[in-house]
Amino acid sequence: MIMNSKDKLFVAPAPHVHDKSTVKNVMWNVVLALVPALLFATYFWGFRALLLTLTGAVTAVVCEAIIQKLRKVPVTVHDGSAFLTGLLLAFNIHVGAPIWLPIVGAAFAIIVGKQVFGGLGNNPVNPALLGRAFLLASWPTRMTGGWVGVKDYAMSGLNNLPRIATNLQELSPKAYELVTSATPLGVAKTLRDSSFVADINAQAGGIDLGGRIFSSLTEMETLRSLFWGNIGGCIGEVSAFALLLGAAYLLYKNIIEWRIPLFYIGTVFVLSLLFGGIPGSGTSILLPFFHIFSGGLLLGAFFMATDYTTTPLSKKGRIIFGIGCGLLTIVIRLVGGYPEGVSYSILFMNVMTPLIDRMTMPKAFGRIKK
Amino acid sequence: MRLKTFPGGIHPHDEKQYSKSAAISNFPTPKRVIIHLSQHIGAPSTPIVEQGEKVQKGQLIAQASGFVSLNQHASISGSVNKIGRFLHPTGSMSSAIEIISDGQNDIIPLDDDPKFLELPVDVLKERIGNAGICGMGGAGFPTHVKLSPPADKPIDTVILNGVECEPYLTSDYRLMLRNSDEIISGLKIIMKIVGANKGMIGIEANKPDAIALMQKRCAKEKDLEVVGLKMQYPQGAEKQLIYAATNRKVPAGGLPMAVGVVVQNVGTAVAIYEAARYQKPLIDRVISITGPMVKTPMNLLAPIGTLYSDLVEHCGGLNGALGKAISGGPMMGFALPSLEAGMTKGSSGLVLLGEKAARSMAEHTCLRCARCVDICPMNLMPSMIANAVKYDDLEIAVKAGLNDCIKCGSCAYVCPAQIRLVQWIDTGKIRYAEIQRNK
């Protein structure tokens, strides 16, 4: 007798095999992919970068657990999604920020950005970006001020914007402030103001100082600094190299899909090449690289614009989403009120997602296109 | 050979290692068989024998009850013990005829027409219809119906399906190695019946020896071609196979004949050959008894109606605690409540899995990760269909592809939230059909 015929076997619907992927696995893999960026940030800016990041992540986990307890639903913080949100939120803060900033931001991200809507899978916009937008609106000076403080935490070298300042002893106070106190994107933004450029040029005795500073943005040295991470900015934005490393891992593991990052970055590339120059200076083939490596673009394109819940389902929809993000980012960077536009453009496209989904329903195999 | 394929799909481990080296062996005459009246798509067959009646192996015991129905024959000699409800390989209870063996093993007298290819099409078709042949890949569509396309749908290509993309199963593979000549004869008969001038045999790349053998057999035949296919599930699904082999897209809701193609399983081709040449009814088939929990995995030629429990016993029994018994492959097969089901003409395999497989995983909330969308071989939005069914919005479900779904299970296979997408979609299909009926 091979088995008692009265025994009932386990019955479940097909398929009876699974690729063993889990939500937990996905989330912790994304966290893992962000570890290089965190290590680079800690290397360049010291322990405080690590401290701020972990503070954000732990706050997010604690908040999620408390809210889930209050909602009387299973506590699922082990799935890593809250940890990831807190981590990404902190990555959007600069290292000179006070310690309460990531705490407040992460709490807002989890409570208002995620749990209010029912938790994982239900939030309409990226919680980490919502948290960042909240912080930026509430404490704009805390969020953007203190860039200068960055170099106090730097462990190696200075970026080449102050180097220009030392090279150009003739700099006026206004120009000196520009090249020392802003992020590279801030410099690029300020130089788009032609009256400002005329001002510093006049103060510099008629030489094209504005053009010279602008072209220094696309010097190999600047790009090298941007690529390896020796530059001012938010914690997670420090090193293009570290972010690309993590992105490659996620693409290899099939956790993120290539369409959104490719079309996002591709759009930024094309538009910055076409429209990124300033009057008198023209453009440079290296200008797109400046735009791609600086600010939050790589962090946004690979780690936030690829957030599952808040991006379109269909392949065509993801292409539209990526192009939309790139377009808005460039519009904000070049003509908007802020030097950086990654987070707002992703948030804006997040809200468009249901509409995009509805408009890009794929035609089934064998259905004739109408 | 350049391997062909279709867009989408997944790459599960093929798990063929258990039974792929086991040559086909004959299963001895079982003590009893259960011949189901629904082994096919269409109306159940009508029994023409009564309880207690003596029957001989090969004798007609249930008649097709219409054009889209099937003849059923006694697969062993003995007496009809009971006509009642028995466990079907799909896991439900269904009407069947139980025959108890009398120990005799003589089949009804068979003829031999060595010049079967010269027989008129009508005769060939009649013999196939009489033999009670249905698709042996699993779906079980009556073959005589499939071979009677309307005159306004000319067929130019016949594709034999030797893909066997379901993990574990090796019955078609072993059959191709053993019966290549019969398969090719079957293919030629089908081509003659439908008037096709091109015959193809689709085989997945994990069966290189079968590809090589079939190529050798087809080398001198100008109108026959072996198509090597990439290992990718569901490569053996009809529409996907047709696309991979011919680059033709079967229109949604349409049949392969709409693009001039007829697809038959390689096992069906052998049955067609035997019916055309010997007028032999379909009373046995090759089935893989495989998986980690069976002692000696085998590919057995067994009478239709043999109980799964007898087959497992023949394979040396179980290796340990049985968790799940799957009739068919693990992607689309049915989990059985017990092994007391009688195999049907569509039973290509029995996969026995351990206790680990017998765990139900909790469904999580959909992350919208779109993996299901990315791999859907029908280019649908499985998560959106499932969600729409969940919230009773069938209109959106239909828009997202409810009626185009082939239930291959690829979406549920890749879902990190373990959502039982196929079950939700199936629920939607049933509800939708109900609504259409009540209209």
In spatial order, strands of the major sheet of chain B run 1-14-13-17-15-16
Q: How many distinct helices of chain A?
A: 19
Following the backbone from N to C, one meets helices and strands of chain B in this order, namely EEEEEEEEHHEHHEHEHEHEEHEEEHHHHH
The major β-sheet of chain B equals:
6 strands, mixed
Number of helices of chain B: 13
Topology diagram in text:
The complex is a heterodimer of chains A (370) and B (439).
Chain A: H1 23-45, H2 47-71, H3 81-91, H4 100-111, H5 127-138, H6 140-144, H7 150-153, H8 160-167, H9 173-181, H10 184-190, H11 194-203, H12 209-217, H13 220-228, H14 240-252, H15 259-275, H16 287-293, H17 297-304, H18 315-335, H19 342-359
Helix pairs in contact in A: 1-2, 1-3, 1-14, 2-3, 2-4, 3-4, 3-5, 4-5, 5-19, 8-9, 14-17, 15-16, 15-17, 15-18, 18-19
Chain B: E1 24-26, E2 32-36, E3 46-47, E4 54-55, E5 60-63, E6 72-73, E7 78-87, E8 93-101, H1 121-130, H2 143-146, E9 157-162, H3 171-178, H4 180-194, E10 198-204, H5 208-218, E11 224-229, H6 238-246, E12 261-265, H7 266-278, E13 284-290, E14 298-303, H8 308-314, E15 324-327, E16 334-335, E17 349-353, H9 371-375, H10 382-390, H11 394-399, H12 410-414, H13 421-438
Parallel strand pairs in B: 1-14, 9-10, 9-12, 10-11, 13-17
Antiparallel strand pairs in B: 2-8, 3-5, 4-7, 5-6, 7-8, 13-14, 15-16, 15-17
